Amino acid sequence: MNDKKQSIQIVKIHLMLKGISPSYKTWVQHGESVHVDQSCVSNDANCDNGGGVEDRMAGDGTDDKDELSNMLEAVYMGAFMNGDIDKLPNNLGREDAQNFDKLFDDAQQPVYPSCKTFTVLSFVIKMLHIKVYNQWSNSSFDMNMKVYKEILSECDKSVPWTLYEVKKFLRDLGLGYVLIHACKYDCALFWKENANLEKCPICDEPRYKLNDGNAVDMRWHKEKRVDDETSRHPADEKEWKNFDRQHPEFSKDLRNVRLGLATDGFNPFENMSTSYNMWPVIVMPYNLPPWKCMKEQFCMLSLLIPQKTAPGKEIDVYLRPLIDELKELWKDGVQTYDASSGSTFRMRAALMWTINDFTAYSNMSGWPTKGYLACPICNEDASSEHLRSKIGYMGARRFLHENHIWRKSKLFNGKSEDRSRP
Known about the structure:
By secondary structure, the protein is of the alpha+beta class. The chain is built from 14 helices and 8 strands.
């Protein structure tokens, strides 16, 4: 009765569900300048009235051959069944209706102004179909979309160009999905009245898998490792065994964690001219078997340091949160649940090694890796010499056995080497 202001989509849904008000017989409220024959008025919203609301409906919905648009129309219409206009897709409230209207409109826009083949929605669905059919990885999907974006420079701003944006685009339109857990024996769904249960209401089977195999693996370095003087694992090395002798209280509990730390900078944009650096700081547990301790799923990203330039020696400022936690784990430990034994214990941790290239090593340790004292092993006793415009390190023979024949040779620098290993 023209007493409320609504978006065109809501008006469209009201017309589709309820039709035109029978009392509205003279069409004068929508800017019509020509008198319309009253016999033309009906409830089916299909007659030609010379420019009324029905024409816009026919152009926007009923004559639309794009089945995806029809599907989207059905999703939208479902939110208004029985007059429930507060129930919008994705649990949106009335205050978010305007945003949903924009998404609804954007989805039906052509991919670019002159495109007659694809709307934004149909293009997204088509690309997802190709991804699944050809078993594209997520990264390959994003790479293909990136190429399309560069080729189609006039594309509509609403086109999502990454898989993450695509999923969000569909979810916000009410075309997403809900993940529902099920009993491993197919007894029941953890849904509605069972949504918060930890065990199946039928067979009492636990809802979540207890992966206690990994917990047992945390003791592998002592219980299952073969100690035959062959180096297969960090636990075979002298440093590990020397640490055990120095800290017997820590070594007594096999579940205490030995850690390695690795960090280095990289350019996230794959363009060396771009001034930007990302420094991930990754910690990995060496308690695990050698075929697991360096696998991706067992590496822990403890810090991510984004900067336009490398942090340099000031990286210690950013490492402080990690260092404080490592100190706590070393000194006091934390109360931890052992899934393999079903008991709790106070777990401690020690940082055994860091893994870096020489430049990152300088930043992490504070030791300069340039100049005459660049060798952290030789320290102040470095065998560095000035060679024209460079500095050379001529004392590598110090690391040979004391009776090695090369130690006496003067072919290297005109001198014999009688110094012991540093």
